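Predict the structure of NBS-LRR resistance-like protein GbD-cnl29.
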Amino acid sequence: GGVGKTTLARAIFDTLSNQFEAKSFVENVKDVSKASPSGLQLLQKQILSDVFYEDVTVKSVHEGTNLMKRRLHKKFLIVLDDVDHKDQLVALAGDLNWFKPGSRIIITTRDEQVLIAHRVKLIHTVNLLSNDEAIRLFNRHAFGKDVQIQEYEKQSLEVVRYAAGLPLAL
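Done. Here is the predicted structure for NBS-LRR resistance-like protein GbD-cnl29.
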């Protein structure tokens, strides 16, 4: 957690979404699907509503799965953020034959086994930035420069350490 999977997925989604006939960014799959017995239905409804630009009624996960099988034959970009169980992928991304060739499904998860169980073909592990990379990124956004500003060297390092979940050493 905390490596920026959601942020990276959002950036890819925003960059590529105009190349697809339909798109949907589904955040917090784990939390929404577990929040209530109808959580997966709500997520299916979100995807179908995003695709057809109208409110779609989904009465059950089974019905939602059937609707998605029948109606998602478009070149589709979908992000499923924070997936933690194979059943979520079955209900929300089912099988590749649901989508037209050229479709892309991006899944963020902390559990690679979920992807393996769903037979995901391409898995990319996101690694934490090194201290130098993190400081350079921070400086680029905070000061508009890639190089370290000497007067703020200690503070920049403290911000980067704090963002990584390390204790401050003031």
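The chain is about 50% helix and 10% strand.
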